[in-house]
């Protein structure tokens, strides 16, 4: 049996149509399971989240403790009881080591001796995200430096890159060392790096960060890109400093250390 | 063939050892197919017992769905999943999935053990949303 040119082309055409229809059907059956994803409509929105910490209002040790406790209890941050294994999302440090390039002589004693509340600065140009080989840590469009613990391979490049010591490594299983477990938030596992997440899970469900809420007005949180926002107006009226600004990382945590 | 007897005896002994796991287990394969249990207080109270997607889809694709959920929520900030019925579901393994399927041992582990897979979800996520001691 021989097929002439005309017949061959006919069959070829029919085959193409058949494959097309079959493929389309496959796509349609697939599409049935496909749905969609959308952000919550009650989440807070901003172009550039930032924080102002008014250190003048932190007077007693309790003020710091309350804020740290609020964060660490919500996020299941363990307490190993030794500084070598320490995991911290928000912590205190003395003025000299928080602002090593601000060490002026004759600084008012209450400023010089006051502990400074530190956390991840959520830098605009975050060095940690640049060195991460798996993109486990990344910048979100709203300015938050987020971390995906699923992807973290524990190489600790980000810890080396962070100029602010904001990152901690899980050397041990944290679960037995969590005082009060929050069953609505995961823990971490040994071998991943963790840090403050600017309470992204709270922001996206319409709540301000836990530390800001617990500080009762000592800390402010808002949109740095909006000139009318609470924090922008606060920064307009008060002189603020940031940690190691000369590095060009553009931290999003501003400190007000003195003045009226 | 030199030392033919020894070689053949050696081969027979080797085969006897190498195939030992097979013939020693002949007829013992009595592993019952998994029966994941839906018997939890939350599921019992549901008026319409439906998962976020049809049962068949979930059975075959729950792992892919969970990965998609993870990326959508964590990377794209989209924390609501709209399922094939058009309903909105809050994306959370711990607070959505495990709220209904609070019986990890009888639901998740039942099939995972059978299939000999060991997902590490629960190294970080808690199996029961509302239980203090979950270690």
Any overview of this molecule?
The complex is a heterodimer of chains A (about 260) and B (about 140). With about 260 residues, chain A is of the alpha+beta class. Chain A has nine helices and ten strands. In chain A, the strands form four sheets. In chain A, strands 9-2-10 form a three-stranded mixed sheet. A two-stranded antiparallel sheet of chain A has the order 3-4. Chain A has a two-stranded antiparallel sheet with strand order 5-6. In chain A, a hairpin with a 5-residue loop joins β5 and β6. The model of chain A has no long low-confidence stretch (mean pLDDT about 90). Chain B has about 140 residues and is mainly alpha-helical. Helices cover about 50% and strands about 5% of the residues of chain B. Chain B has a two-stranded antiparallel ribbon. The longest helix of chain B has 21 residues. Chains A and B meet through β1 of A and α4 and β1 of B. β1 of chain A pairs antiparallel with β1 of chain B.
Give the DSSP E fraction of chain A (strand runs of 2 or more residues).
Answer: 5-15%
Oligomer: heterodimer
What portion of residues of chain B is helical?
Answer: 40-55%
CATH topology of the domain at 60-207 in chain A: Alpha-Beta Plaits
Overall morphology of chain B:
elongated
What is the arithmetic mean of pLDDT of chain A?
92
Beta strand % of chain B: under 5%
Using only C-alpha atoms, the radius of gyration of chain B works out to: 24 Å
Greatest interface (CB-CB under 8 A), with counts per chain = A-B, 31 and 35 residues
Number of helices of chain B: 7
- Runs of chain B with pLDDT <50, length 5+? 131-135
Helix content of chain A: 25-40%
| Overall SS class of chain A | alpha+beta
CATH class of the domain at 60-207 in chain A: Alpha Beta
Rg calculated over all Cα atoms of chain A: 26 Å
* Low-confidence spans of chain A: none
The main pleated sheet of chain B reads as: 2 strands, antiparallel
The biggest beta sheet of chain A is recorded as:
3 strands, mixed
Strands of the widest sheet of chain B, in order across it, are 1-2
